[in-house]
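Title: Comparing notes on inverse folding

I've been comparing how different people in this forum approach sequence design from structure. To keep things fair, I'm posting one structure and asking everyone to reply with a full sequence. Here's the target:
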């Protein structure tokens, strides 16, 4: 079976449209639901396995039947990446393995009351682990909470999922540059800024990283409404760089 990556959400913490905002991007999203951006998360599928990357969508229980994914892999414990777990945990009849970074604080009481969530030992940076046919390598990112991106290998295909981050730590950058990446999914939350961005990539930094790492294809995610508005009138993105949208499916 071919490898598939589906974007369940591509928005930043405010999502698109932003409540009460009347900018062009938010108004367009209200008129065309295809332009809405929900909490940033994705699914990877192959050989009958389905793994969820982050769990910020609050409709997980309504959208996925029990047993439809084999594991959840978290980048970090900010609320917009774990909100869906708070309802999901009270399910019955099965357990869901949850992998994530070493963060003793976690988020609220998820560790104390995990319900059907079976939290695995904290992941170790650059130490591979396997879920079914997938081999994942945790990659440290630069963020305000302990955060990991992931290098993912499936039947010789390599891709990376890197959100939330501002730039990349040198060891992570070196690791990525040594791999022939078919795809890099990269945080890009805001339009170009005159000063270095904080906590998330701006477009300038994201494009510089794409040029340095040189994957076959780069898809930008974790977009905010200001970046959407900027892109309506901005020059075209460089070849090989695209913006991801909710519901987008990429096959390898």
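Reply #1:
Here's my take.
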């Amino acid at each position: 079976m071919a490898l598939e990556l589906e974007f369940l959400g591509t928005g930043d913490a405010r999502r698109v449209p932003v409540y009460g905002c009347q900018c062009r991007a938010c108004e367009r999203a209200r008129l065309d639901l295809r332009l809405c951006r929900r909490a940033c998360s994705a699914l990877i599928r192959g050989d009958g396995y389905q793994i969820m990357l982050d769990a910020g969508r609050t409709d997980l229980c309504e959208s996925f039947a029990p047993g439809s994914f084999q594991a959840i892999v978290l980048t970090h414990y900010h609320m917009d990446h774990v909100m869906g777990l708070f309802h999901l945990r009270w399910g019955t009849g099965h357990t869901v393995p949850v992998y994530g970074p070493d963060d003793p604080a976690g988020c609220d009481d998820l560790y104390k009351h995990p319900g059907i969530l079976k939290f695995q030992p904290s992941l170790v940076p650059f130490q591979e682990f396997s879920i079914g046919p997938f081999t994942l390598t945790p990659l440290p990112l630069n963020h305000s909470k302990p955060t990991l991106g992931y290098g993912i290998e499936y039947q010789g295909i390599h891709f990376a999922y890197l959100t939330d981050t501002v730039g990349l730590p040198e060891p992570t950058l070196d690791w990525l540059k040594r791999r022939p990446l078919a795809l890099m999914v990269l945080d890009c939350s805001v339009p170009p800024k005159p000063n270095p961005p904080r906590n998330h990539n701006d477009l300038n930094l994201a494009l510089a990283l794409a040029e340095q790492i040189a994957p076959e294809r780069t898809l930008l995610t974790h977009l905010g409404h200001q970046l959407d508005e900027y892109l309506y009138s901005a020059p075209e993105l460089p070849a090989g760089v695209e913006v991801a949208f909710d519901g987008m499916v990429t096959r390898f």
